[in-house]
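Hi C.,

You asked whether I'd gotten around to modeling the 111-residue construct. I have! Everything is below, sequence then structure, no commentary in between.
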Amino acid sequence: MSRPRPPASEAREDLPVMVAERSADAKGSINLRIEADTRRLIDDAAAVLGKTRTEFMVESARRQAIDVLLDQRLFRLDPDRFDAFVQALDAPPAPGPKLRSLLRRVPAWQK
């Protein structure tokens, strides 16, 4: 179940990001095939941080997943840039010839 997020204007960087909640005992496994050099690199990095390979990989993958999802959903703008963004949304450019051509095409699923 997803936890509701505050609007972007109320989002705070010091709060943890919850993408999804799961019960504490819900675990699974992921099997990966990687080259020996990559495995050694991961093991060395994990050792530097005092973590196991699994802890290091899960934390790294989770952090990257959150970043990817937030890049698709949340961005911050100062008030002036926000106003310019809203103005651009409210006044889109007129369709050009390529867009008109695309919209005239019959979709592949209707052929």
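If it helps when you're writing up: The chain has one domain: 8-110.

Thanks,
B.
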